[in-house]
Amino acid sequence: MSHLPSPPQKHKGEHKGHGLPRGSERGSSARDKDRSVTVNSTVPMPVGGKGSRTSCSPSTLQKVPNRLINEKSPYLLQHAYNPVDWYLWGQEAFDKARKENKPIFLSVGYSTCHWCHMMEEESFQNEEIGRLLSEDFVSVKVDREERPDVDKVYMTFVQATSSGGGWPMNVWLTPNLQPIVGGTYFPPEDGLTRVGFRTVLLRIREQWKQNRNTLLENSQRVTTALLARSEISMGDRQVPPSAATMNSRCFQQLDEGYDEEYGGFAEAPKFPTPVILNFLFSYWLSHRLTQDGSRAQQMALHTLKMMANGGIRDHVGQGFHRYSTDRQWHIPHFEKMLYDQAQLAVAYTQAFQISGDEFYSDVAKGILQYVARNLSHRSGGFYSAEDADSPPERGMRPKEGAFYVWTVKEVQQLLPEPVLGATEPLTSGQLLMKHYGLTEAGNISPSQDPKGELQGQNVLTVRYSLELTAARFGLDVDAVRTLLNTGLDKLFQARKHRPKPHLDSKMLAAWNGLMVSGYAVTGAVLGLERLITYAVNGAKFLKRHMFDVASGRLMRTCYAGPGGTIEHSNPPCWGFLEDYAFVVRGLLDLYEASQESSWLEWALRLQDTQDRLFWDSRGGGYFSSEAELGAGLPLRLKDDQDGAEPSANSVSAHNLLRLHGFTGHKDWMDKCVRLLTAFSERMRRVPVALPEMVRALSAHQQTLKQIVICGDPQAKDTKALLQCVHSIYIPNKVLILANGDPSSFLSRQLPFLSTLRRLEDRATAYVCEDQACSMPVTEPCDLRKLLHP
Length: 789
Hints:
- By secondary structure, the chain is an alpha+beta fold.
- The protein contains 27 helices and 22 strands.
- The protein is 44% helix and 9% strand.
- It has a four-stranded mixed sheet, sandwiched between helices. It has a four-stranded mixed sheet with strand order 20-19-21-22, with helices on both faces.
- It is globular, with a radius of gyration of 27 Å.
- The model is unreliable at 1-12 and 17-62 (pLDDT under 50).
C-alpha cells in the first residue's frame, strides 16, 4: 500500500492477515515482514522490498491479448494484455512444463489487491520480464478467489518457509507441482538492500539448469514435511478436548493481546476478525456472572465501538475497509470486502442484542445499506469487493484511497452554511472537521504515506463524542447529530462525482452465504422485513444461478454480465467446502428469520452433498476441496485457522449441531464429535487460532436449546413470541415454528413436535432440551425469563 510504512529491508504484499494476537500458531503473518523465501542454500533469495511505482511507456505495452482474454475473472482479465504467455491452472500448463522440462511460475492474486496491481504494472507489463516468464518458465495465473485450494496449498508452503505470506503470491514449482521457492510482492529491479524480480527469475533459471536434481530433492523433502505438518486427524483420540479448558485458554490468550486503549488484538495492522468478537460474546454469556465474563463483553464492545469510530469505517458511504494500518483504526487499507461486511453486520447486531445500545444497530444497518447500494446485483446476488485504488480525477493514475479522502478546502466549500446558536462563529464544515479530526495539513502522518501521495488529505475518524462536540460549541446534541448527518450526506453526494474504485463483480457462493446470514440475522433481530427480503433474494439467487440441480452441487463462482445478465465460466468452477458451509449457515439463519421451511430443506440437502464430497471418513473433519478437483496438488488440506473468514470446518461444526437440533439425525451429531476430535491437537496447541471452533466445542458440550413456537405464522401473537426470541442473544439454539401440521417437514423430522399444543388457541412457546420441554408459555415476558434467567 502506498501509505504503509515501508522500511527498505521489508518485502511487502497484501497480507495473509488474520488479526490474531501474538501466540497464534502461525505467528503474525499480517505484519510487514520479509515475504521472500528460500528453501535451500543453492537458491539464495535475498530480501525483497517495495520498489518505485514506475509504469511502462504506452509504446512498449503489448496490445495483443494473451489467452486470459477469454476468462470471466476480473483478476485474470486485468492481466490479459500482459506480454506474458499466461496459462490457466490446468492440464495444458502441466503438460507443457513436463514436455519441455521447465519450472512452473505460479502467480496468485485477486482483483482488488493493491500490491497485485503494483506487480502487474511494474513487472508483468515489462517486455523483458515477459520474455523471461514466457521462454524459461510455464507461467500460470490464478485468481485466489476462484481457486482457494491452489492458493491455500502454496500459501501453506510460503508461510512455512518464510516469515509470513500475502498477495500477490509468487511460487516456482517443479513440473510435478511441488514448490521450490516462493514469496509475495517483488519489485522489478534490484535496490540497495533487495533483489528485484528480474534477478530472481534469472537466478532460478540458472539454478534449474545447473542444480536441478538438488532443487527437486529439496522440493520433495519440503513437500513431505508439509504433508506431515498439515495432517489433521482423530488418530487414537476418541473424544474432543474439554470445552472449559479450551475456552479459558482462548480467553486468556486474547486477554493478553488486547489493546486496552483502542480495542483489537494487535499493534498494527489491525484486522476486524469478527470470529474473535463472536467468541468473546459467547464466552461472556457462559461466564456472565464472573469477572472474566464481564471483561470479555467489555473487550468486544469496546473494540466494535473503536472500529466504528475509526477511519476503518467509511463514515460517508458506510461499510468497513479491510484493515487498519495503525493501532488507532485510523488509516485503513481502503479495499472493501463482502465477507467483512457480512460478518461485521452480525457482530454489531449481536452487540446491540447484548447491550441494547442503538449505536451498534445503526452501524449494522449502515453496513447493509452500503452492501445494498454498492455490492448488490439486481438478481439478488452480492459482488465480491471494491478496490482500494481509484484515480483522483479522470485520466489520472489510480492512487490508493483517492475516492475516500478529503481536504479541508473541499469540506469548507461543500459546507459553508453558518451554524446558528453556536457560542462562536461556526460553519457546518468547521463543525464536521472538528468532530471528525480534519486538519489543514491533513491527518495522515508521513510515516503512513512514504510517497507523499496523501499530503493534505484527511480520513474521517470520530475524535469526540456527540456530547463533547455539542458542549464545545454550546449546541444541543440532537442539533449536532442532524448537522453532522446532513454534512455527511453532502459529502456523499459530492463523492458520487469522483472516479469510482474498481468493482469486482465476481460472485462467490461462500461470501454470498455469509451475506445471506448478515441480512437474515440483522433483519430478524431488528424486526426489519426489508432486510430479511434481501436475504431471501440472496438465497434465491444462489439456488437459481449457483446450484446444479442434477448433481446437487454448488458452483463456486458466477459473474455479472452485460445488461444485468449472469455468466458462468465454462467448464463451471465447482464449489469448495467453504461454499457449502457458509451457504448452509446462511440458509439456517434464513429459516429462523423467515420461518420458510424450504430453506431448511435445502440446507439439509446441501449438507448431505458436503458430507459426500469433502468428509474424511478415516481421519474426521472435512477436506477443503474435492479429491478430484485437487488432483495433482501436493497437499489436500483441512483449513485449521479462523481468520478474516471463519474456517469452513469451524462453521460446519456449528451447522452439524444445528442440523441435529432441527432433525434429530444422530449421524450429524456423530460427525460433529469426530470433527472436533480431529482438530483436538490444533485447539490444544493454540486455541486462539480457532476461536470459532472453540465456540462450537462449547456448544457441543452444553445442551442445545430447541425453542418451539406453536402458532399461525401470520398471527400477531406468534410474531411477538418469535421477535422475543430474536431480541435475545442465544447463540446455542435452534428456533422452530410448529404450525400444527403433522405432515410438515419439521414434524416429520421431529415427531415430538406433534405432542406440543397451543394453550387456549394462543401462540405458545416451549423451550426443549434433549426432547424434554418446559412448561408452555404464551407471553413474551414469560418466554424471556425462560431464555434469559
